[in-house]
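Lab channel / #folding
Pinned by the channel admin:
"Please post every new chain as: sequence first, then the structure tokens as a reply. Keep commentary short and put observations after the output so the thread stays searchable."

First post following the new format, from NK:
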Amino acid sequence: MRMLAWLGRMGLDVVRGAGALGLVAGRTVLALPRLERRELARALVQFGHDSLPLALATAALAGVIVVLQAGLYIQRFGARAFLGWASGYGVLWEFGPLLLGLIMSARIGARNAAELATMQVGGQIEGLRGIGLDPFAILVAPRVVAMELSMLALSTFTFLVAILFESVAALLTLGLPLRVFYGTFADMLSPLDILGGVVKTGAFGLAIALLSTAVGLSARGGARAVGQAAASAVVRGCAAIFVLDFLLTALLAGWMA
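Reply from TO:
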């Protein structure tokens, strides 16, 4: 009986969460033509510019780690010439979008949910409605647009930095010349491989923005609700990223086959 009750509560939570997410997404789309541009500019600086150092540092480390890990198997099977293709494919398709999504979920998703939860429990969002202003046009739509634009811009920089550090790591640790690394990278990777990483990055950004916004707006109570909203936004954002990664990898791989 306890198991059934637990499953019932879980089912209701999932239905409530999906309903709240759908409502936020729908109202955000309707508010897009009236979004507050100053809030959009502030969010772009906060989400994109301020996240750039952390994203680049993570990309550099990820590139080196991918080469070190892949190098073990590449050397074992005598396929050093394919390291450029293997490491580039891994970064473009998997590690780049996934690591960037997790970083942004922890850094921006938590902050976004905490800010909106603070305004919700403090009555500021209700106050905006009271004077005839739409909170979705002022607070939500700019954050969703800023997150999408920031993720796509950051993905370009992180992919380039990761591949650059991969080539340097391959040269220093395996003695692989740069022309060989970039030769296989250019010959065996297609624009569709880059498109796959961009699609994943955009989907992750949208999921982080909508989930953190929905969690923040649904906060009720006092200061504890703000902390719970921040933690919940990170957990749900990371879970959504892994689910989307699985689904998009299956769909895109089947489409490109």
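NK: The mean pLDDT is 86.
TO: also worth noting, Residues 135-174 form the longest helix (40 residues).
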